Amino acid sequence: MTAKPLLTALLPLVSDLSRDLPERERYRRLLQSLRTLLPCDATALLRLEGEWLVPLAVDGLSTDTLGRRFKVSEHPRFEILLASPSPTRFDSDTTLPDPYDGLVEGLHEDLHVHDCLGCPLFVDERPWGLLTLDALDPQRFDSLDLDALQAFASMAAATVTVAKRIEHLAMRAEDEHRRAELFRQASTPQSGEMIGQSPALQRLGDEIRLVGSSDLTVLITGETGVGKELVAQAIHQASARAGQPMISLNCAALPDTLVESELFGHVRGAFTGATSDRRGKFELANGGTLFLDEVGELSLSVQAKLLRVLQSGQLQRLGSDREHEVDVRLIAATNRDLAEEVREGRYRADFYHRLSVYPLQVPPLRERGADVLLLSGYFLEQNRSRLGLNSLRLSPDAQDALMAYGWPGNVRELEHLIGRASLRALGQAGKCPAILTLTPADLDLRTAQVGIEAIAPDSVEMPVADVDLRQATDAFQRRLIQACLSRHRHNWAAAARELALDRANLSRLAKRLGIK
């Protein structure tokens, strides 16, 4: 390769270094220039985060690749590339599994014999990530000068450095240690990453950063399964309290008799079974954040006691007269319309206004467009690793089916569906295939839709008209739940899945409705 093609590929990147570009656009241009220099069928830029490689940009690979997180120890090609200080080309007939098997656009069979190479990127003399290239022609890179790729990698590292410095300048107004911790947490799959690139999710991210820099009480609302707890974690990590604990309590998982003890603690002898003093969630969260999930389930009496703590910062353990002072930021979440609950007299207006200082609505999955495929990629990679597969992917028809579905259970439903479909497809395959492809039949979305239609209002006897709205709603919910339980032979877990509810929430609702 002569110097002219290399110069032609590098000049746009040099020009981009002085431009204020979004990070994603900067990386897209980087891969575009790479394919100009080294024609190939697929290329990717991956960032190393601990033991994981996180795709930042791809060209020629399926969209869901951006949602995947590759564990380096499970992909020997990545291990070899990261261990080498210079570009590495793999033999076209190597038996090492390819992480992109099944992910190359337009290819619906195994990546048997092909050309593959990669190059590590170093920033500040530390491993930062990888550039990878794949070509379906096994001789595509025969005439390649690896020095040209090394020169390009140096320019790529400079691009990454510039992107990092721009990001650093944007964060200087915030506490640097706290923001760095947020970046680390958000880039680690185990921490509960919010995956997606839709405008709806980006707007939510902007609001999280905005309210995170304050100490305001936040009320997170949204449908079941949208990820309200992930939003709460992100707000905590974006706050000055990030170095302190975030303590969570699901208000729907406990009866009223225990909620008060869980929140405020108790002393020995306060009630039967209280054999020792115990700190409550407020004291455990002192200096940090307390997250109350399903806050709409709290009784009026508990709401009154919580209101006092929020106003004064002081609490008493059950059975004690001693005051304990706490400094806690409160984040609450609910899938109920609390304003309507207040109007109906089922919720305290003063407590509601104390909670909703900064209301934050989490968008349902059906409003997030192609995020469905990115999230699918994330869950596919989790299941690939869990099931010990080389490759797990979606067929084009399966991708279309996921995009067309309404997702009443949101992200949680998608996660469970991918898990079920992966296990079902593996069981039907008989033996472990090189590539396991999920089809619409494996996803079984038709059955899920039938389940929703089976509990539609037309299928449940409606109450008579001489009752008020609350009574009519309760009667409808009672008959709907009873019908669902009957279909599942009183398997409460299965009924909860069909109704898109948490098992604990269904039990609590059934108890209130008088269902045994």
Q: Would you mind describing this structure in some detail?
A:
The structure is a single chain. By secondary structure, the protein is an alpha/beta fold. The chain is built from 20 helices and 15 strands. The strands form 4 sheets. A 6-stranded antiparallel sheet has the order 3-2-1-6-5-4, with helices on both faces. A 5-stranded parallel sheet has the order 8-9-12-7-13. Strands 10-11 form a two-stranded antiparallel sheet. A hairpin with a 6-residue loop joins strand 10 and strand 11.
Structural class call reads alpha/beta
Tell me the Rg in angstroms.
27 Å
Number of self-contained structural domains: 4
Strand sequence of the main sheet, in spatial order?
Answer: 3-2-1-6-5-4
> What spatial form do the alpha-carbon principal axes imply?
globular
Runs with pLDDT <50, length 5+? 169-191, 450-465
The overall pLDDT average reads: 82
User: How would you name the CATH homologous superfamily of the largest domain?
Assistant: GAF domain
Strand fraction band? 5-15%
- CATH architecture group name of the largest domain: 2-Layer Sandwich
- CATH topology name of the largest domain, in short, is Beta-Lactamase
Separation of the first and last Cα atoms: 77 Å
CATH class descriptor of the largest domain: Alpha Beta
